[in-house]
Specification:
By secondary structure, this protein is mainly α. About 65% of the residues lie in helices and about 0% in strands. The chain is flat.
Length: about 170
């Protein structure tokens, strides 16, 4: 998005502010990686690099590049003050984010297959506006196919709920 030169507006967040916030968060992640790598051993031993050697330098690269982003955002002559997100775009993000959080929370109680069926059905019905027959077919068949793929053929156990327990899984 081109910089319109306009401030983000009342209550809005600018691209510049988001650049700084994300870069600072990434600097914190890089610092944690560096610290954990240092505790593992980030040096060079007689047999070669210790287990934290490469992760330490990856963390350092994250910190340095994030610091450059912060500096570039704060000390530029023409800061990007355009709004980070428009209200309509934010509403669309929330339309996906909130049901996704509900889906993740439901996995603990219903299992991944039943929660996944509900998730697929909800999105097909609410956002996709599909007919009920298609919604039911897809929201039942896709999790069922994944159940057979992971549980039966690959023998990879995924979180299960009361429905799977009823059938002995």
């Amino acid at each position: 998005m081109q910089d319109s030169g306009e401030p983000a507006g009342p209550g809005g967040v600018s691209n510049r502010a988001m650049d700084v916030v994300v870069a600072v968060l990434l600097m914190a992640v890089g610092a944690v990686v560096m610290l954990a790598s240092y505790e593992l051993g980030a040096g060079w031993s007689s047999t070669g690099p210790e287990s934290g050697y490469f992760p330490f330098y990856i963390g350092l690269l994250i910190v340095v590049s994030s610091a450059a982003t912060v500096a570039g955002s704060l000390f530029t002559r023409s800061p990007d003050r355009a709004p980070f997100v428009q209200p309509d775009g934010f509403r669309r993000v929330l339309q996906v984010l909130i049901p996704s959080l509900v889906f993740v929370a439901a996995i603990d109680y219903l299992g991944i297959y039943v929660a996944g069926a509900g998730f697929i059905a909800f999105f097909m019905w609410w956002l996709g506006k599909y007919q009920l027959a298609k919604v039911l077919a897809v929201s039942v068949l896709v999790p069922l196919a994944f159940f057979f793929l992971f549980e039966v053929w690959f023998l990879v156990p995924l979180p299960k709920g009361p429905v799977e327990a009823f059938f002995g899984y």
